[in-house]
Design brief:
Blueprint: H1 2-23, H2 30-46, H3 60-89, H4 95-106, H5 110-127, H6 136-163, H7 181-184, H8 191-225, H9 242-271, H10 276-287, H11 292-307, H12 315-341, E1 345-348, E2 355-358, H13 362-392, H14 407-435, H15 446-457, H16 461-477, H17 487-513, H18 531-561, H19 576-579
Helix pairs in contact: 1-3, 1-18, 3-4, 3-5, 3-6, 3-16, 4-6, 5-8, 5-9, 5-11, 5-16, 6-8, 9-10, 9-11, 9-12, 10-12, 11-13, 11-14, 11-16, 12-13, 13-14, 14-15, 14-16, 14-17, 15-17, 16-18, 17-18
C-alpha cells in the first residue's frame, strides 16, 4: 500500500509536469501566451491558413493551487510512510521523521492562500467577461507566494542535512525560526563556518518571508485595483461581491497575526528585546481563524453557482456571509483586546480551537462569555445558511431556468458540512461541560473522543474543496460558462468526498462502541478483540485511502487535460465509471444559461 501511495503521487506530478509543458512553455507568462497566440492567428490568416481555435491556458491561480496540493500530497505521504516504517520495524523515530513533521507545519498557509487566489480569479473573470487575466505583477505575486511556501518546506528538509540539526518551525505559524549563536557553538572546531552558514540560512529565511507576505499583499491589492481592458476609472466598476470581500477580510485577519508574529520575532533577533507577551497574544489570535479557509471556499462556491445563472447569491445568503465573517473577526479581536487592554488572558482549547477569555472584572467576564457564545452561534449559523442557500437558489429568469446544483458544488458543500459538523459537535459538548459546571463532563464521554478523532479525518477538506472549485472554474472559462468537468473528473471528486465521509463515519461508529484511538495521520488504530472486525476496519481504512489519493490524481489530471471539447460533463474511465455509474453525474449536463464570471 505504501508503494501504491508513492505511485499515485508520482503519477500526479508527472501529469502536472506534462501539462505545464504543454500549456505554458518555459519563460512564458499567461499574458505572453495570449500575445503569442494572437500573433500566430494573424500569420495564419495572412497565409490563408485556417486558424486553430484558441484555448485559454490554465490560469496562473490554478497552477499555483495544484503546486500547493501536490506539495501537500508529497509531504503528508512521506510522513505517513516514515511513521509506518517506524511502527513496523520498531526503529525509534529520528531526524527524518522530525524534519517531515516540520515540513508539514510549513504548508499550513496553503488553504487560505489558495482561496485568495480563487477570489482574485473570480473578480477578474467577472469584470473581464471571462477574457482577462490578473495583472502580470499579480500573477508574479501568486508565484512568489507559492514558491515561498515551497522554499520554506525545502529549508526545513535541507537544514538537517547541512547542519546536522533539525530546523525549528513555529507550530503556530508554520514559519522557520531564526538561528541563534548557540547553534554555532555546538561545534567549536567549525564555529566560524557554521555561523556563516546559519547567517546565510537566515538571509534565505527573510527572503522567503518577503516573498510570502509581499506576494500576499500584492494579490490583495491587485484584486481590488484590477481594471479590465477599455476601463480607466476604478470607481465606475461594480464593487467586489460579498463573497470576495469576505474572503479578503478573512485572509487579512488570518495573515495579520502571522505578520505581527514575524515582525516581533525579527525585532527580538536584531535587538534582543522581549516580545514574548505580544507574540503569545498573537498566537492565540491566529488559532481563532483556522476555520477561515473552509468558510471562504464555501462562500466562493455559492457565488460560482449563482454566477452560472448570471445572478448573485440571495440577499439573505450574503447577509449570512457577513455575519459569519464578522463573528470570526470578533473572536480574533477579543483574543487580542482581552489580554492587552482588559488585563485578562486568552485560553485556546487545543481540541476545538475555541478561545476562552478570563478577565478580573466579573461583569466584563460575563460580557466576554456572552460575546463568545454569540460569535459561535453566528459563525456556525451563517455557514449553515450559506450552504442551504445554494440548494434554494433560483435563477433571476425564474425557477424553470434554474440549473441543478453541480457535482462540484455538491462535493464542496459535503466537505464543508463534514468539517463544520465535527467542530460544532466539539464546541457544543465543551459548552455543555462548561455551563453545567462540570456536572455533565462531556469531554470524558466516548462520543467526544470519537468526534475528536474524526476531526483529523477532515483536515484535508479545505484543500480538496479548493481543487474542485478551481477545476470547475476552468471548465466554465473555456466553454463560455456552458460546460462542466469531464464525468470521470467529477467521479474523482465524489471519490475524495466519500472517502473522507466514510473515514468520518468509521470513527463515529467505532466511538459508540469503544474509546477511539487514532495515529498522527487520523487512522483508527484500536486493537479489536474480534479478528474479523479488525480485518474489516483495516480494509475500509486502505480503501478510503485509495479513493482519496486516486480521486486527487484524477481531478488534477483532468484539470490539465481538459479542452473545450471534453469539458462537457461526459466521458468515462473504462471499468471504473461502469462500476460507479449510479453517481449523480450519470446523465448529460442540462442546457446552459447565458452569463459569465
Amino acid at each position: 500500500m505504501a508503494m501504491l501511495k508513492a505511485a499515485l503521487v508520482i503519477v500526479a506530478l508527472a501529469s502536472v509536469g506534462q501539462a505545464l509543458t504543454i500549456h505554458a512553455p518555459t519563460g512564458q507568462t499567461s499574458s505572453s501566451l495570449q500575445d503569442s497566440q494572437k500573433s500566430t492567428e494573424k500569420t495564419q490568416l495572412e497565409l490563408g491558413v485556417q486558424a486553430i481555435p484558441k484555448v485559454f491556458p490554465v490560469p496562473t491561480s490554478s497552477r499555483c493551487i495544484v503546486i500547493m496540493i501536490c506539495q501537500y500530497m508529497i509531504i503528508f505521504t512521506a510522513l505517513a510512510l516514515c511513521r509506518s516504517y517506524h511502527e513496523l520495524t520498531g526503529v525509534a523515530k529520528g531526524p527524518v521523521e522530525a524534519a517531515l513533521r516540520g515540513a508539514v507545519q510549513t504548508v499550513t498557509y496553503g488553504p487560505m492562500l489558495c482561496t485568495l487566489f480563487i477570489a482574485c480569479r473570480m473578480r477578474v473573470e467577472f469584470l473581464s467577461d471571462g477574457k482577462g487575466q490578473p495583472q502580470n505583477w499579480v500573477q508574479n505575486c501568486m508565484y512568489a507566494v507559492t514558491f515561498a511556501v515551497m522554499g520554506s518546506t525545502f529549508m526545513v528538509l535541507l537544514i538537517p542535512l547541512v547542519t546536522g540539526k533539525s530546523a525549528v518551525v513555529n507550530e503556530e505559524t508554520g514559519d522557520l525560526e531564526g538561528p541563534t549563536k548557540a547553534d554555532a557553538e555546538t561545534d567549536a572546531d567549525h564555529e566560524q563556518m557554521v555561523m556563516e552558514l546559519l547567517h546565510g540560512l537566515s538571509a534565505v529565511r527573510y527572503l522567503i518571508l518577503l516573498g510570502l507576505y509581499g506576494g500576499l499583499v500584492g494579490v490583495i491589492v491587485g484584486t481590488c485595483t484590477y481594471l479590465p481592458e477599455g476601463e480607466t476609472d476604478l470607481t465606475k466598476l461594480p464593487a467586489p461581491a460579498t463573497s470576495i470581500v469576505c474572503t479578503m477580510i478573512l485572509a487579512v485577519i488570518f495573515f495579520m497575526a502571522q505578520i505581527v508574529i514575524a515582525v516581533c520575532r525579527s525585532y527580538t533577533e536584531f535587538t534582543g528585546a522581549d516580545t514574548h507577551r505580544l507574540m503569545g497574544v498573537m498566537h492565540s489570535a491566529a488559532a481563532t481563524v483556522e476555520f477561515a479557509p473552509m468558510l471562504s471556499i464555501l462562500f466562493l462556491a455559492a457565488r460560482m453557482h449563482a454566477l452560472q445563472h448570471d445572478g448573485q447569491p440571495q440577499a439573505w445568503s450574503q447577509h449570512a456571509m457577513r455575519v459569519s465573517t464578522n463573528a470570526l473577526c470578533l473572536s480574533t479581536i477579543m483574543a487580542v483586546v482581552v489580554p492587552l487592554m482588559l488585563g485578562g488572558k486568552t485560553i485556546v482549547n487545543t481540541t476545538t480551537k475555541e478561545a476562552t477569555f478570563e478577565v478580573p472584572n466579573p461583569t466584563l467576564s460575563k460580557v466576554c462569555l456572552a460575546a463568545r457564545y454569540v460569535a459561535m452561534v453566528c459563525f456556525y449559523g451563517g455557514a449553515a445558511a450559506v450552504a442551504v442557500s445554494i440548494f434554494l437558489f433560483e435563477a433571476p429568469a425564474g425557477p424553470k431556468h434554474t440549473l441543478p446544483v453541480s457535482p462540484t458544488v455538491q462535493c464542496v458543500v459535503n466537505l464543508s458540512m463534514q468539517f463544520f459538523v465535527v467542530y460544532f459537535a466539539l464546541h457544543l459538548m465543551v459548552s455543555v461541560s462548561e455551563l453545567s459546571g462540570g456536572k455533565y463532563n462531556m469531554q470524558e464521554h466516548y462520543l467526544f473522543h470519537a468526534v475528536d478523532a474524526a476531526k483529523t479525518t477532515v483536515a484535508l477538506a479545505p484543500m480538496l474543496a479548493i481543487l474542485f472549485v478551481t477545476t470547475r472554474m476552468y471548465a466554465l472559462l473555456i466553454t463560455d460558462n456552458k460546460g462542466a468537468p469531464q464525468a470521470w473528473v467529477q467521479d474523482g471528486m465524489f471519490m475524495c468526498s466519500w472517502a473522507l465521509f466514510v473515514s468520518f463515519m468509521m470513527c463515529l461508529v467505532t466511538g459508540m462502541l469503544m474509546k477511539v484511538e487514532v495515529d498522527a495521520d487520523g487512522n483508527v488504530t484500536n486493537e479489536f478483540s474480534n479478528k474479523f472486525v479488525g480485518i474489516a476496519m483495516t480494509v475500509i481504512r486502505y480503501l478510503t485511502m485509495l479513493l482519496l489519493y486516486g480521486g486527487i490524481v484524477t481531478v488534477i489530471t483532468g484539470l490539465f487535460s481538459m479542452t473545450p471539447e471534453t469539458a462537457n460533463g461526459r466521458g468515462s474511465v473504462p471499468i471504473v465509471s461502469d462500476a460507479i455509474n449510479a453517481t449523480p453525474i450519470g446523465h448529460s449536463p442540462p442546457g446552459p444559461v447565458m452569463g459569465s464570471f
